[in-house]
Write a structure and sequence with these properties.
122 residues; mainly beta; seven-stranded parallel β-sheet; 7 strands; 50% strand
């Protein structure tokens, strides 16, 4: 049985990786970084709820690919950030908010059931 990654399992540099065969990994909460340069990679994932990535300050990089979710939100805040979203499908909104520090956002093959929004958050 797969145990959920909960508040008791959080630590600075978290890495959750499946092995051979079919894996089922459940993240209960949002992914929230700190003021450092965070790196978040989400790939080949299905989410029944809203997927949220918030990295706060720092020069962050977020890569999301092959994602199906009810909705998805990314907020990088301050720093020169890079956001790459490829092959994502949602029933509701896809939202990408960055700061105003020379960010780069690449959206490729992103399908939203409602709104697709990319804007600076300041």
């Amino acid at each position: 049985m797969v145990q959920p990654l909960t508040a008791a399992h959080r630590f600075g540099n978290a890495a959750v990786e499946g092995g051979l065969g079919t894996d089922s990994i459940r993240v209960i909460d949002s992914i929230i970084g700190d003021e450092a340069a965070d790196r978040v990679t989400i790939t080949d994932t299905t989410m029944a709820n809203v997927g949220t990535v918030e990295t706060k300050g720092g020069n962050d990089r977020i890569d999301a690919s092959l994602v199906m979710a009810f909705a998805f939100a990314i907020d990088t805040d301050k720093g020169a950030d890079i956001v790459n979203v490829t092959d994502m499908m949602t029933a509701e909104d896809v939202r990408v908010f960055t700061g105003t520090a020379n960010d780069r956002v690449n959206l490729t093959n992103v399908m939203s059931g409602k709104y697709l929004i990319a804007a600076d958050s300041e």
